[in-house]
Design brief:
Number of domains: 1
Number of strands: 5
CATH architecture: 2-Layer Sandwich
Structural class: alpha/beta
CATH superfamily: STAS domain
Shape: globular
Strand order of the largest sheet: 1-2-3-4-5
Helix content: 40-55%
CATH class: Alpha Beta
Distance between the termini: 34 Å
CATH topology: Transcription Regulator spoIIAA
Radius of gyration: 13 Å
Length: about 130
Amino acid sequence: MPIELQYRDAGSGVVFVCTGVVTADEFTRANEEVYSEESLDRLQYQLIDFSDTEHLESSLEDTRKNATVDTAAANQNRNLIIAVAGSDDLTFGISRMWQALTSNSNLRTGIFRSVPDAEHWIKETLQDA
């Protein structure tokens, strides 16, 4: 499975552990699980971990759709934050494009080259909330 969901902190956090080739359809399925009504209410953060991803397949339209879904989730849960960690340039660039597409929403996002940097940002952002 290219995306494994690991729930943390009694369900207030979730890590998308991405491996191999990851497609937009796989993100859609993972988001459907994460954004179910019972889990969205208690969710505070997501960490999208691309550190073991070989390739991210996401067109501009796919990225727009994911940004729309994440923005809608943040409208329902105004405490939601999302951090993305990926070291390769393509993944980093797609992530920055997604971040730009969500910038007019109340969703707080961070894009990082490493998981430790993303985790540090999550911790700091949750403390400031």
